[in-house]
Amino acid sequence: MSDLNTLYQDVILDHSKRPRNFRAMANADHHAEGYNPLCGDKVTIYVNLVDDRIADISFQGSGCAISTSSASILTETLKGKTRAEAAALFESFHNLVTGQPVKPTAPALGKLAVFSGVSEFPVRVKCASLAWHTLRSALAGDPAVATTE
Amino acid sequence: MATTRNLVQVPAREAPAAGFDVRRIREDFPILKQRVHGKPLVYLDNAATSQKPQAVLDALMHFYLHDCANIHRGVYLLSERATQAHEDARVKLQHFLNAADPREIVYVRGATEGLNLVAQTYGRQHVGAGDEILITALEHHSNIVPWQILCQEKGARLRVAPINDRGELILDEFEKLMNDRTRLVSVAHVSNALGTINPVKRIVEMAHARNIPVAIDGAQAVPHMKVDVRALGCDFYAISGHKLFGPTGIGALYGKASLLESMPPYQGGGDMILSVTFEKTTYNHIPNKFEAGTPNIAGAIGWGAALDYLTAVGMENISSYEHALLAYATEAIGQIPGVRLIGTAREKAGVLSFMLEGVHPHDVGTVLDQEGIAVRTGHHCAQPVMARFGVPATVRASLAFYNTKQEINALAAGLERVKAMFA
Question: Hey, are the CB atoms on A124 and B360 less than 8 Å from each other?
Fold first, then answer.
């Protein structure tokens, strides 16, 4: 059961049951929808940028514990960050969940490190990364629904 | 969300025949002996694909060790043996489905290709602008999308008969949807997502009373029950080998000979012709007319071995054993607080689909996997069914005749672990 406890850490379970920043943002200047066709997980990310900095960020959607907590922790982590900082964190996060070494020069993962267990569950990587792909679409202004495919 | 307790009422049937010994059956399936994450494998994803008995593995190995050659053309011994074994398997399929003639069995890749074949040949020949094709709300994507493609091409309309809250086809509504523009009815015999058994014999009677032919997606029926296409009276019946304890990549389409004769070919190529010049090609007779190219020879032969195995065990024995096992599983899983069964039809086969309150099906699946239990989580290629019940996905445990009550108990215990973890 040790692998499972690594995957479903308390922080992840907490965020999946009580997601933070779980609300629609009517006046968001960036938003995008993400969809994982394999499992039906859906997420919408809303962002307000002020001077290239994420002033406010929220999400809505439905999904498993991994995808919901990932979106929730994403919003907590990225509030106040610049676009460039968000992109760098995405790269580090992606390396973390796919079991690749995180660059020593990368920004500190902070709470995102609780997703380290995902790398032991390859089929769940897409659950963890859906919100991040969706965020990238939102910031890029991509009108297509983001997927992890 | 309140727990919905909606247990299936399963009518009593005869006990399994004395000759059916599940422990002996399991000995015939070597894959079942392994451990997964240190736990005995509990394989409950049989609606996705089934495991193969040793007899099938032996037949495949024998073919590749001794008889491997292309069929229908060599004058040498190996080709004769390969051709004979390939055609013997067709006869086995004929008997298994009780078709009138082996020429009524067309080899395809699986039920999906069988339904596409009907859509692209019979469908393109008979469906025009303003015509209708009638399916049900229970269908797998493979019995939806081929018809959508055809309807889009022809300007025809796809009609969908609704289901009730138990996941049963509403037969009155189905009947009302048939009209003088209906060119074909295509329905699942057994729903892959819910396990509902459709009253296909009654459906065929209703449709035939209006001179509408009926195609049946039988992929989920044949592993669980004796199917007699002549007793059903259906016009087409599509099945997959890999769900019927045979290899992947082989399936069969049954079609009435008179219909197959009248249909245009499906794909062009070798084996489906009698003669070819640049001016004119004469097509082969049925079923070869629909079998362009080198077929899955080994697959057909391996499948034939599976049919022999099933015949020896007895489909009636399999059916009654599984019926009792499904009733046991429905009771054992359905009574767990927080479990909501999705699909509680009075007539069901092989499938237990459910939600566990407060836990996403994928998380259930991951935890069960760590317990050695393989279930399917997701929409089961039946998104309209999921939408009908207002869920994005379910957990699906699907049974085969090698599953046991102990395995159901393991599933129940696994679900308790899930609950403890996510409480």
Answer: no
pLDDT digits (tens, 9 = 90+) for A53-94: 999 999 999 999 999 999 999 999 999 999 999 999 999 999
Q: What is the DSSP letter of B342?
A: S
- B183-241: per-residue pLDDT in tens? 999 999 999 999 999 999 999 999 999 999 999 999 999 999 999 999 999 999 999 99
**How are beta strands B132-136 and B157-161 bridged, if at all?**
parallel
pLDDT tens digits, B63-90? 999 999 999 878 899 999 999 999 999 9
Q: Which of B325, B355, B326, B322 is nearest to B338 (CA)?
A: B355
Q: Please name each of the domains of chain B with its CATH number.
A: 22-33+314-422 (3.90.1150.10), 57-311 (3.40.640.10)
The count of other CB atoms within 10 Å of the CB of residue B180 is 10
Q: Which chain B residue has the Cα nearest residue A41?
A: B392
Give the C-alpha distances (Å, rounded to integers) separating A16 from A10, A56, A111, B338, B423: 10, 20, 14, 18, 12
Whether residue A4 and residue B421 make contact (CB cut-off 8 A), yes or no, is: yes
Q: Do A39 and B378 touch (CB under 8 A)?
A: yes
What's the fold here for domain A2-140?
Sufe protein. Chain: A (3.90.1010)
Cα gap B67→B79, rounded to integer Å: 7
A with B: how many residue pairs have Cβ under 8 Å apart?
45
Beta-bridge partner residues of B397: B352
DSSP-assigned letters across all residues of B178-233: --TTEEEEEEESB-TTT-BBP-HHHHHHHHHTTT--EEEE-TTTTTTS---HHHHT
Contact B410, B364 (CB under 8 A): no
Domain range list for chain A: 2-140
Residue A22, CA distances (Å) to A78, A83, A121, A137 in order: 14, 21, 26, 19
pLDDT category of residue B381 using cuts at 50, 70 and 90 = confident
Distance CA B65, CA B211 (A): 50
Give φ, ψ of B231 to 5 degrees: -65, -35
Least confident stretch, A115-129, A135-149, B105-119, B284-298: A135-149
Apex CA B330: angle with CA B329 and CA B335, to 5°?
105
Q: Amino acid identity, residue A8?
A: Y
For residues B166 and B198, give the distance between their C-alpha atoms in angstroms, rounded to a whole number: 12
Q: Does A38 touch chain B (CB under 8 A)?
A: yes
Q: Tell me how close the Cα of A1 comes to any Cα of chain B, in angstroms.
A: 7
Quickly count helices (H) and strands (E) in chain A.
5, 3
CB contact at 8 A, B147 and B124: no
Q: What is the DSSP string of A9-61?
A: -HHHHHHHHS-TTBS--TT-SEEEEEEETTTTEEEEEEEEEETTEEEEEEEEE
